[in-house]
Amino acid sequence: MDDFYSPVAEYYDLVARAHSEGDTVLRERLAATALNGEPILDLGAGTGRTVAAIAESVPQCDILAVEPAPAMRAVLMHRVVNDPHLRQRVTVVAEPVDKLHLPDKLGAVVAYGVLGHLCREKRQQLWQLLLPRLSAGAPIFVELLPLEKPIVLPAFPLACETVGKRHYTASLQGEPGPDDTMLLTSCWTIRGGPCPAQVIRNQSVWHTFSLAELAQETRLRAERLTAQAGVLYA
Has residue 120 got a pLDDT over 90? Predict the structure, then answer.
């Protein structure tokens, strides 16, 4: 899987602050789920926002945090190393999804913001790896862009934050790519403080599909949680 995140990893948590609905519902659902002490897989753990949500919601389970992007993983490791509770429970690995070595059993899977980077063939490989390890009723939490087919996506605000003397604004826009893909471009503008203004553009590729299509692929029951988040039940 291509590394679309390292060029803008330092800004990633600014976006997460502006779009926290998925984190909130993840915490609520995990806290209400009986996991029997089985480990939880965080696929595409990023800078660790979902790791923190899992750890706070389910204090008794180990967490396997998978993050291939080096810059994102560096932030994740910093978060884990400096939190004694996370340091005891969280194992960080860099392997991409097609090279994962997983525990025999998983109590839940969190796949926020990652499945759209996988083509259908790669997703099928992932399901073949994950589904036999899930206990009956185990949840797979997913977060998808609300794009079920390629479209022209006009620029819209993504984040607006101030840190120290610098002000960060971001937008996202997209256009159809080959087959089922969207070509997404994020634009970050940073102003203020002692440095000149900066404009940073970053491109990524996202495969478009719906939560219902994921249910068909996995033959699991799906439930919509927010505009972007949902859950599949094994």
Answer: yes
> What structural domains and CATH numbers belong to the chain?
6-144+209-233 (3.40.50.150), 153-207 (2.20.130)
In whole angstroms, what is the distance from residue 161 CA to residue 173 CA?
Answer: 19
- Tell me how many degrees the CA angle 91-217-46 measures, rounded to the nearest 5: 30
Give me the residues paired with residue 141 across strands.
Answer: 110, 231
pLDDT digits (tens, 9 = 90+) for 145-202: 999 999 999 999 999 999 999 999 999 999 999 999 999 999 999 999 999 999 999 9
Q: What is the pLDDT of residues 54-100, one digit of tens each?
A: 999 998 899 999 999 999 999 999 999 999 999 999 999 999 887 88
Count of beta carbons in the 10 Å neighbourhood of residue 126 = 21
Could you give the CA distance from residue 126 to residue 123 in angstroms, rounded to a whole number?
5
* Count of helices and strands (H, E) across the chain: 7, 11
Q: To which residue do tokens 């005891």 refer? A: 88
Q: Which residue in 6, 95, 108, 110 sits closest to 51, CA to CA?
A: 110
CA distances from 49 to 8, 80, 109 (A): 16, 11, 15
Considering only CA atoms, which of 98, 113, 1 is closest in space to residue 50? 113
Distance CA 32, CA 63 (A): 17
Whether 168 and 160 have beta carbons less than 8 Å apart is answered as yes
